[in-house]
Amino acid sequence: MALSLRTRVVFGVAAALALAAGIGFALFDRAAADTTALLALSLPDTAGQSQPLAQWRGKVLVVNFWATWCAPCREEMPEFVRAQEQYGPKGLQVVGIAVDNADKVQQFAKELGLNYPALIGGFGAMDLSKKLGNELVALPFTLVLDREGKVAYTHLGPVTPDKFRGVISKLL
After folding, report:
1. Domains parsed from the chain with CATH numbers
2. Residue 73 falls in the annotated catalytic set
3. Is 81 within 8 Å of 111 (Cβ atoms)?
């Protein structure tokens, strides 16, 4: 089901207002978010295979909540592809959790050449993102876990390449 133009505009305006209000990113207390639920989660990939997030324990884990209909999400994803290619061998793992259906995600992943897992979270993923610090429940929302599984960084809105690389380089 495609979202109406009005719905997409509302999402865009909400994201723009959040950024204008200075909520573009938030470093937060590593104890503030309990990642136990996230790391215990198992979600299907685009092929329908269940993928437990716990399989990436011990890595710097970038979890990006996104959707195919989200223009800012589409803007930042090529940077995640480049980072996965460059830093993957050093212990980085990017994982996308799509608030979307598998068919759309699979098609988009092919178009973009995703080199990291795209998991299907559906609209339930938004509840999880809220528990992890996404107070506005907007997209894109990215969090970075350190090698111990603690939240090191969160960001609402598209992550700039310089900021993103600065955060992950300190953790690798």
Report:
1. 25-171 (3.40.30.10)
2. yes
3. no
